[in-house]
Amino acid sequence: MESYQHVLDTLRSIIESSVDDLDGGEINADGNLKGELGIDSLGMFEVADKVQERWGIVVTDEDISTFTTVDSIVTFIQVEVGKKGIPAVAEA
Which residues, 6 or more positions from 34, have their beta carbon under 8 angstroms from its beta carbon? Predict the structure, then answer.
C-alpha cells in the first residue's frame, strides 16, 4: 500500500489541478474541502474522477458525500486500494 504521505501528496496535486485559484501549499490533511478550500460539488466530482483514474478504484456519489477533509479522501483511497491489493507504489 502506498504511504499516507505519498497518497496525500498525489491527492494534493489532483486537487490543485482540479480547483482554480488553489495552490498546493494551501492544501493540508485537515483542510476542510468545502469551507476552507472552497471546493464545490463540480470540483468534488472532478477530484473523484481523477482519483478513480489514478488509483483504479470506484468512488460513488455516496462516497463523495462523506468527504469533508483532505484526510477523509486519503483514508478512503488507502482503504479501497488495500481491498484491491494494488501494488505498493503505482506511478501516475
Answer: 40, 68
Radius of gyration of the chain from Cα atoms?
12
In this prediction the pTM is 0.87
Local structure of 32: helix, strand or coil = strand
Q: What gap in Å lies between CA 63 and CA 10, rounded to an integer?
A: 19
Name which of 29, 25, 67, 23 is nearest 47 in CA terms.
Answer: 67
**Tens-digit pLDDT profile for residues 17-54:** 988 877 777 899 999 999 889 999 999 999 999 999 99
Residues 43 and 17: beta-carbon distance below 8 Å: no
